[in-house]
Amino acid sequence: MTNKTLVQISKDLAAGEYSSREITQDIIADIKARDSIYNSFISVSEHLALTQADAADARIAAGSAEILTGVPFAHKDLFCTQGHATTAASKMLENFVPPYESTVGQRLLSAGAVCVGKTNMDEFAMGSSNESSFFGAVKNPWDLNAVPGGSSGGSAAAVAAGLVPAATGTDTGGSIRQPSSFCNLTGIKPTYGRVSRFGIIAYASSLDQAGPMCQTAHDAAIMLNAMAGFDEQDSTSQQRETPDFTAELNLPLNGLKVGLPKEFFGPGLNPQVAECIMAAIKQIEALGAQIIDISLPNLELSIPAYYVIAPSEASSNLSRFDGVRYGYRCDQPTDLMDLYCRTRAEGFGTEVKRRIMVGTYALSEGYYDAYYVKAQRIRRLIKDDFTRALSQVDVIMGPVAPTPAFDLGSNTKDPVAMYLEDIYTLSANMAGIPAMSTPAGFVNGRPVGLHIMGNYFAEAKLLNIAHQYQQVTDWHLQTPTSSGMPVSNTEKGA
Amino acid sequence: MALENADIEKIAILARLQVTHSETNDYANSISSILSLMDQMQQVDTEGVEPLSNPHDATQRLRKDEVTCGNQREAFIAIAPATEDGLYLVPKVLD
Prior knowledge:
The structure holds two protein chains of two kinds.
Chain A: H1 6-14, H2 20-38, E1 41-44, H3 46-62, E2 72-76, H4 103-110, E3 114-119, H5 153-160, E4 166-171, H6 177-183, E5 186-189, E6 209-214, H7 217-227, E7 257-261, H8 271-286, E8 290-294, H9 302-317, H10 336-347, H11 350-363, H12 368-392, E9 395-399, H13 415-420, H14 426-431, E10 435-443, E11 446-454, H15 459-472, H16 487-493
Parallel strand pairs in A: 2-3, 7-8, 7-9
Antiparallel strand pairs in A: 1-3, 4-6, 5-6, 5-10, 9-11, 10-11
Helix pairs in contact in A: 2-3, 5-6, 7-15, 9-11, 9-12
Chain B: H1 5-14, H2 21-38, H3 73-78, E1 83-84, E2 87-88
Antiparallel strand pairs in B: 1-2
């Protein structure tokens, strides 16, 4: 079943090549057989999946199937799944079984999609390498010595390894795009407010967005069609029509104005990554686009401003974990303060605690204006840069990350070094614009993604560009090997 | 800006996190280096720039004050770590 696209599986199901139950069983067996290599899943929801698959088969038989009916996928373990453990990759929620389903999950279930399990991630989505998970690091299927990226690293590794055709992710500062880049996937972070945040465990609420991680732009458009839409239950959900994200896939790129911000090609960029990106941009130009040099002068400030705003919002969001209502609780608390302090000290990992403390400090009396408000002012400068640039050009392109996937363990000692890896992705979250990664080559066997950013609600345009690029390139079709197991790298890793 | 161990202890109390003595040192070092990264912001003149808290500059959408999701007591009590007679248990707060 490996490496079939959603579109292909949907066609096969409609043609009766196999049933949803059969492909779901095969996928679950494959995860059980091979995932010990990657550690991309935290849990498999076999019973629920088979119930959903049987319902999908009944819909297919009754002729009421939609395109995703019966198609298996995996959820990042940040999406609440009713009746199935949702951990956020934290000891704090190791045994948490949500009494409700996220809106995204509900929408996918209504479309008939089958959730086979929950993927590994950085704890509470805080990380860029998937090494902060309570359930252990995830390995990149392209090179078992490399990280898959983060925080949606399990989703990325699971799709790249051919274990599932698609997975959900969330992106607060690059957590869909960077692992998509590191694992050769097509991943899109929609406009802030396009996809409901209800039922997704919150990290930084003014930045969080959910989106799909797939093999192709066409698959991503199909997933986004199911995931997006206004939701009463998310107070920041945008009240506007959801277009058919597949409708513009086949439009030609003639006359498209592509901006290249000089700040995306500065000294920090790995020269081989730069080569891949420039080659991809040449191909986009050959498809009829016009390339224009632009500037986003405040890009560098996105790092300090993000690492104030995100931890501040996290410190507030994560105050709900108190050992009283759900989640982990320490043994034999002596008083209320001891209950809170020990529950949280024992339940959270190091990086989560560090970000809570940074945020607590930034919001504390005497520092609030100097840190949090200052960061919000800089956030507006970053948004204004994009508004100015996007009045000149239709989309902005560059690298997703300054390097290909780095080695496991190489950045874990120094949090600042890890934060600097996010230089090209943070600004889209700060501005709230949509942005995506599409496969654009390899450096020493490790994938490189092309970053495409656009104006508010221009997801269809981004997917159109990625789809057209995928019609003239085959990077997205490359897989670690036909079995999903990278032979040479397995030897190296063993 | 460098933080002392005493600063970390104060922040940890505000954040309701117990930290051990050796952790305090590590956090003082790593959080100090994060704060010096943040200090880049202070070089920028943001006089007159309105803070941005929502990317769309949207304000909170309010819903009608109606009951939309009935009593979920059973479901919520079922996932709590310590309960009695349908109530959450916490250590004694009043003597």
